[in-house]
Design a protein that fits this description.
With 241 residues, the protein is α/β, with parallel strands linked by helices. 40% of the residues lie in helices and 19% in strands. The relative contact order is 0.14.
């Protein structure tokens, strides 16, 4: 008997278990197939190509999205969709320092929000002097209870003094603290680079736009919490008005 298995085509490629690989080798050596216990396929991606949310997301944006719940090994996994809900609102807090770069990051974030289904009028933008000031305004907007997530955008470039460490560390810890203290996803979209050239590369240059990445992260975080909270599996935002 000859084994002529056709290759599978789909979103995820199954990873063959050790038992099944041994079975295939036995077929090749002996030329005959023997019964082998059915193995659970382990996929390299959690996406389920047959799910309706995936098909809808692909039709909506011409790309593969993620369903809010996927089933892997018989147990549901909750995954935030990158497609925004029309009733969601997002805040972006932007540092004016190094504005040449931060304006590009802001443009990337707004473009990503709109491409992922969010109406432009559901985005609020606030400017602050520098990255060190991001957390206080982000916290105030998160605590208002009017936003599903907040994106913080800034650029800190290393100089000749230790000022870089102070600003970068303060911004990092401050943004993280906003998420922890409010329960509202607050996304760190601050570039910390050695040179201005590196910053520009990450603001629409050869390494992409980190502002856009931060916006998509915000959507996914807001959606996974929306799903979990809707099922009573996560607490409501605890630091909001």
């Amino acid at each position: 008997m000859q084994c002529n298995a056709a290759p599978r085509i789909g979103l995820a490629r199954p990873v063959l278990s050790t038992v099944r690989c041994q079975h295939i080798n036995r077929i090749r050596q002996t030329g005959c197939a023997q019964a082998v216990p059915t193995q659970v396929r382990r996929y390299s991606s959690p996406l389920d190509s047959s799910s309706a949310p995936l098909r809808q997301a692909a039709q909506l944006k011409g790309r593969v999205g993620r369903s809010s719940v996927v089933v892997a090994a018989g147990k549901p996994h909750h995954v935030g969709s990158p497609i925004a809900h029309k009733d969601q609102r997002y805040a972006i807090v932007v540092a004016r320092f190094n504005e040449l770069v931060t304006r590009l990051l802001l443009a990337g974030a707004i473009d990503a929000f709109e491409r992922h289904g969010l109406p432009a009028e559901n985005i609020e933008v606030a400017w602050v002097p520098g990255s060190y000031e991001l957390p206080v305004v982000a916290s105030a907007m998160a605590r208002s209870g009017k936003f599903d997530a907040v994106v913080c955008i800034g650029t800190v470039v290393r100089g000749a003094t230790t000022h870089y460490e102070a600003v970068a560390g303060g911004a990092t810890n401050g943004v993280l603290d906003v998420s922890r203290s409010t329960g509202v996803p607050t996304i760190f979209g601050v570039l910390t680079t050695e040179t201005m050239e590196q910053a520009q590369d990450r603001a629409g240059g050869k390494t992409g736009n980190k502002g856009a990445e931060a916006a998509i992260t915000a959507i996914e975080m807001a959606n996974v919490l929306r799903d979990l909270r809707g099922k009573g599996l996560a607490a409501e935002a605890w630091g909001t008005a």
